[in-house]
Amino acid sequence: MASSRLEEHIQRVQRLRELRKSDPAGTRLLAAEAATQAAELRSNDPRRGDALALLAWLRLEAGDYAGAAAVTTEVLRIRERSEPDEFLALALGAHALALFGADRSAEADGMLRRELEVWERIFGRQDPRLAAKLEAQAEYVQSGWGRPYWAIELLQRAIRIREVNPEGARGGLAMDYQRLAQHQNRPQ
After folding, report:
1. CA 156 to CA 148: how far, in whole Å?
2. Digit-coded pLDDT (tens) for 108-127
3. C-beta atoms surrounding 107 within 10 Å
């Protein structure tokens, strides 16, 4: 599934997010380099998408959601053209975050749903890795976006997958039941 370019891209984004906390000046330099690299590449070059994705994460981390949404729109356009599905899923998630932060909730919800569809296409409907994505998104939509009913729906789906695949659950099933109970018992 994961290519070396994908792994490198994920590591670059993680390093960038860590660097922002420890070295703001270094982060600004990285942003300038990413912008320069993006400007030098053809409009559909996947490396341009990589550079713009870094720039988008910098804007997200800085709370510039409208600016990030403009960048993630372009990243998404590039990823939809010919990128492997993993890149598309990551782009959809980043775009959803930017849209939500820019007070465009309905569009953000649509992007999150599309992201899950892509992960399902990558892993398959009953794969424990899809359950892990569902669990992460349940936490995301509840804690970040205050959507308890959607979180419950996602956790129920993850539980169904884990029940079919107990060998891949590794304690995840029990955790999902616990999270589900917590969400169901919260005042709405």
Report:
1. 12
2. 999 999 999 999 999 999 99
3. 15
Q: Which two tokens stand for residue 21?
A: 């906390």
| pTM more than 0.85 | no
State the pLDDT at residue 116: 95
User: How many residues are given for the chain?
Assistant: 188
**Closest of 98, 92, 95, 96 to residue 62, by C-alpha:** 98
- Pull the structure tokens for residue 95: 């775009």
- Residue 144's H or E segment, with its range, is none
Instruction: Determine the distance from the C-alpha atom of residue 45 to the mean position of all C-alpha atoms in its chain, rounded to a whole number.
Output: 21
CB atoms near residue 8 (< 10 Å): 11
Give residues with Cβ within 8 angstroms of 64, minimum separation 6: none
Separation between Cα atoms, residue 111 and residue 92, nearest integer Å: 6
Which position has the higher pLDDT, 22 or 183? 22
> Beta-carbon neighbour count of residue 11 at 10 Å?
10
Secondary structure tally for the chain: helices H, strands E: 9, 0
Residue at token pair 């018992």: 185
Structure token pair of residue 102 = 């820019």
pLDDT of 66-103, one tens digit each? 999 999 999 999 999 977 899 999 999 999 999 999 99
Tell me which residue has tokens 């559909």: 44
Is the pLDDT confidence value at 57 over 70? Answer: yes
- The closest alpha carbon to 53, from 80, 19, 27, 91, belongs to 91
- Contacts of 184 by beta carbon, 8 Å cutoff, 6+ apart: 152
